[in-house]
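Progress against Task 2.4 (sequence-to-structure conversion) is shown through the following example record, which the project officer requested during the mid-term review.
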Amino acid sequence: MNPLVAVVGFCASGKSSVVAGLQARGIRAEAVAQEHSGIDDLWDHHTPDYLIFLDVTLDAVRERRQNPRWPAWIYELQRERLAAARVRADLVIDTDDADLNAVIAQVVRFLAGSSR
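Structure tokens generated for the chain above:
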């Protein structure tokens, strides 16, 4: 069976798009809404083989949402909710200026090189 990849990150970090791209390549992947949960290890309830963390700055979130006033307090709350997942992540990717296909390719390369 293919390993399960859980993808976590801030709102607008690219989780859904990355998961769709991985699935299109035959990789079992799920986006986990860890940023919306007070359960520190919500991602682990999916029992993933790999945990991918998509990082993004507040400025990039605001740009992607086309809202320069998107609240910083929400971003900071998400940072707190994502802290444990970031520490546990097998791969952390900064998506600020990253092309979607490049992010997907980085995950695919990581998985191909993993010994699990």
